[in-house]
Amino acid sequence: MTYQNIVVLTGAGISAESGLGTFRDKDGIWTKYPLEDLATPEGFARNPDFVHEFYNARRAQSAKAEPNAGHIALADLERAQSKTGGSFLLVTQNVDGLHEKAGSNPANIVHMHGELGKSRCGACGDVMAWTGPLSTNLTCQICDTKGQMRPHVVWFGEIPLEMDRIEQALAKCDLFVSIGTSGDVYPAAGFVQMARSLGAWTVELNLEPSSGSALFNESHLGPASKVVPDWVRLNT
Ligand code: BV8
Questions:
Q1: Which residue among 10, 17, 23, 166 is best mutated to probe the pocket of ligand 1, counting the most ligand atoms within 8 A of its Cβ?
Q2: Angle between helical axes of 224-234 and 69-83 (0-180°, round to 10)
Q3: Which residues form the catalytic set?
């Protein structure tokens, strides 16, 4: 079976076997750290050093992490799709750079919740590549404002990135695949409904059923490093 326009959504589950934590599993990040203090603009305003420490540790950890067979299979799927002349868009909620490390084309990746590997100035909005720690002692290299540098990450209450591009791709896709996400965070959790209502075949590849499982035409449960390559082999 070939598809003309494919949209893939990934979440923390695809990076779990690369050693990066998920959020809502039994020992997930939000079970250990207070979401309100770490993933909201209000939390950052209250205690920026605490938030910088949290994201600096995750930036260092994800820089050392390696992609697994799940990430690599998606890069294979993208290459197979480009041979048929079809379109491919990889929308990730993940802020790690593992899809790029696996060989996915950055031009076809949307980091809708931002990227640990970039900084943003809270004063002028400038975004730049950033591999080291961030802190309140830094001055923006563009507008010279001190103390306003933040992770280029979308927090709760903030608008995810490139939503127009995502919605345009969902409107024309004939295949939507959701991988490693609990389906608890919007607007990402609503993408399956949008794709399905516009006629796409919808597939879920996840360790366990997500909150939106009933909305998928097809579901394969298991670890991403197994179910993703298996599914890609069967469908390319
Ligand atoms: C917005 C920062 C407005 C980056 C994150 C009620 C209804 C609708 C919306 C809302 C509502 N109440 C509040 C909202 C808005 C809110 C929201 O959805 N809240 C939830 C909690 C109800 N959303 C927002 O605020 C968003 N902004 O709505 O703006 C707007 C929107 C559109 C247009 C205009 C205006 C902003 C949300 C972004 C928040 N940022 N993090 C970071 O620190 O990483 S959230 C965080 O959750 C991460 O980004 C993460 O990617 C995301 C989703 O989590 P998952 O990736 O799914 O991870 P999770 O642990 O939950 O699940 C892991 C899954 O993997 C599990 O299913 C597990 O079974 C599976 N798994 C585990 N191991 C494996 C595996 N699968 C395969 N293999 C394995 N080995």
A1: 23
A2: 20
A3: 113
**At which residue do the structure tokens 């050392």 appear?**
64
* 26 CB within 6 A, ligand 1: no
* Residue 168 parent element (H or E): helix 163-172
Tens of pLDDT, residues 131-172:
999 999 999 999 999 999 999 999 999 999 999 999 999 999
pLDDT tens digits, one per residue of 1-20: 689 999 999 999 999 999 99
Level-2 CATH architecture, domain 24-64+115-153: 2-Layer Sandwich (3.30)
224 close to 177: Cβ distance less than 8 angstroms: no
Cα separation, 36 vs 44, whole angstroms: 9
18 lines ligand 1 (CB under 6 A): no
Q: What are the sequence ranges of the domains in the chain?
A: 5-20+67-113+160-234, 24-64+115-153
* 196 contacts 167 by C-beta, under 8 angstroms: no
Q: Is the dihedral of CA 115, 118, 119, 123 positive or negative?
A: negative
Task: Indicate the class that CATH gives domain 5-20+67-113+160-234.
Answer: alpha beta
Token pair listed for 236: 């390319």
Q: Does ligand 1 come within 6 angstroms of the Cβ of 149?
A: no
- Using the mean position of ligand 1's atoms as its centre, give its distance from the Cα of residue 197 in Å: 22
Compute the distance between CA of residue 50 and CA of residue 76 in angstroms, rounded to an integer: 39
How far away, in angstroms, is 45 Cα from ligand 1 center? 21
pTM: 0.97
C-alpha–C-alpha distance, residues 162 and 146, integer Å? 28
